Amino acid sequence: MDVERELISTARLDLVPLSAAHAEEMATVLCSPALHTFIGGEPLPPDALRTRYERLAAGSPDPAATWCNWVLRLRVEDCLVGTVQATITEAGSVAEIAWVVGTPWQGRGLASEAAQGLVSWLGKQAVSTVVAHIHPDHRASAAVATAAGLAPTGEWQDGEVRWRCATRP
Length: 169
Description:
Helices cover 26% and strands 33% of the residues. It has four helices and eight strands. Strands 1-2-3-4-5-6-8-7 form an eight-stranded mixed sheet, with helices on both faces. α1 (23-29) packs across α2 and α3 packs across α4 (139-147). The longest helix is centred in the C-terminal third of the chain and has 15 residues, at 110-124.
């Protein structure tokens, strides 16, 4: 599926298509080890993040998958605060999403707002099912998923609960 990533605007955020140019600022946004409590890994330095962003912006090597990645720009503060992503598969009908907001900006509903904007945009791209995988102890991510219209399914993958919503009846 060929999806054209575009700017998505919500009440407070601009979801800007990811580029390697965002790496320097995002390295600071994502520098807290606490962000990796549930997902593993560790914060990346700017050069490593730039390399990762170059790879993501180039797109999936699998023609059956489309990678869509955005940085979150908080308009009022004119700064980047996090990311959202969607991997679209199954001939464009299913998207797996994820989000992260830097610790200084958590607790303001920004992740929920970004996820809602992303799910709405995906529905306009003919995606009919949105899924996310959330650690059972990650209450904040469960709240974001709920706000975006997803519900837990009872299915598990790699120690995480699969959440799902339909973007159309």
